[in-house]
């Protein structure tokens, strides 16, 4: 599903910063893994490269056999649209749109008919147990409910790859655990490949695989037979 070979990412400014340094990584289809490390370790940069939001300075990033560096910007946009669902820490919902409209938006952008779009959006909001909040605006929801809407939106095309960047980082502990359980349940039900970036050991230990990053390099890649959930 995902293959990185010799991947380096550098940022140019007043001085050159190496965010990732010769990363080699393989993620199998249907796998769920956590990427963990302190702030500035490179974990979000790694997720951005895998998600096609940024390009590597060196090395190869492949998704489903396609080398992302060889794709044009338009082709990358289509990959993100059709194959990847993104969940962010701060929800990124449009405040003037209802829950139903926020979840429907990616489908409208794909040119789906209105009736089909609304049916899918309602299905997804039911899936994340927000069927009673469809007409509510984001400001009328709790933090946990907003994250559920964001998850429903990320799943709008049932993407084979789900990328979550600190999905519980802006939530209290109890709500964070609910969102984490929801992500696990959706992974079990849909079989998508799931990568979760986190600095929280409890989140990482709930995943069958934990990839530790420090100073732009992988220093531990651990699999466990039974994750703590």
Give your account of this protein's structure:
- The structure is a single chain.
- This protein is α/β, with parallel strands linked by helices.
- It has one domain: P-loop containing nucleotide triphosphate hydrolases (Rossmann fold, 3-Layer(aba) Sandwich).
- It has seven helices and ten strands.
- The protein has helices spanning 43-50, 73-83, 99-109, 114-127, 143-154, 173-190, 201-205; strands at 2-11, 17-27, 32-36, 58-63, 66-67, 84-87, 161-165, 193-198, 209-214, 217-223.
- A six-stranded mixed sheet has the order 6-7-8-3-9-10.
- Strand 9 and strand 10 form a beta hairpin.
- Helix 3 (99-109) packs across helix 4.
- The longest helix is centred in the C-terminal third of the chain and has 18 residues, at 173-190.
List the helices and strands and how they pair.
Layout: E1 2-11, E2 17-27, E3 32-36, H1 43-50, E4 58-63, E5 66-67, H2 73-83, E6 84-87, H3 99-109, H4 114-127, H5 143-154, E7 161-165, H6 173-190, E8 193-198, H7 201-205, E9 209-214, E10 217-223
Parallel strand pairs: 3-8, 3-9, 6-7, 7-8
Antiparallel strand pairs: 1-2, 1-4, 4-5, 9-10
Helix pairs in contact: 3-4, 3-5, 4-5, 5-6
Total of helices:
7
The level-1 CATH class: Alpha Beta
Strand content: 25-35%
Total domains, how many?
A: 1
Written as H for each helix and E for each strand, in order along the chain, the element string is: EEEHEEHEHHHEHEHEE
Brief overview, please?
With 229 residues, the chain is an alpha/beta fold. The chain contains seven helices and ten strands.
């Amino acid at each position: 599903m995902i293959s990185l070979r010799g991947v380096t990412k550098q940022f140019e400014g007043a001085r050159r910063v190496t965010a990732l340094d010769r990363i080699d990584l393989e993620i199998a289809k249907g796998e769920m893994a956590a990427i963990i490390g302190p702030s500035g370790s490179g974990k979000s940069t790694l997720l951005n490269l895998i998600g096609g939001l940024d390009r590597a300075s060196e090395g190869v990033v492949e998704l489903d056999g396609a080398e992302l560096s060889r794709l044009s910007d338009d082709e990358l946009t289509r990959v993100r649209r059709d194959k990847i669902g993104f969940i962010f820490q701060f929800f990124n919902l449009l405040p003037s749109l209802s829950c139903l409209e926020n979840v429907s938006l990616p489908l409208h952008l794909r040119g789906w008919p209105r009736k089909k779009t609304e049916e899918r959006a309602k299905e997804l909001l039911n899936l994340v147990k927000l069927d009673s909040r469809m007409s509510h605006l984001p400001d009328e929801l709790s933090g946990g409910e907003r994250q559920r809407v964001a998850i429903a939106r990320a799943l709008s095309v049932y993407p084979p790859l789900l990328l979550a960047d600190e999905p519980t980082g802006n939530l209290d502990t109890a709500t964070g655990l609910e969102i984490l359980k929801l992500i696990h349940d959706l992974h079990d039900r849909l079989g998508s490949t799931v990568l979760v970036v986190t600095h929280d050991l409890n989140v990482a230990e709930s995943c069958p695989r934990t990839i530790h990053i420090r100073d732009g390099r992988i220093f531990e890649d651990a699999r466990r037979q039974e994750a703590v959930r």
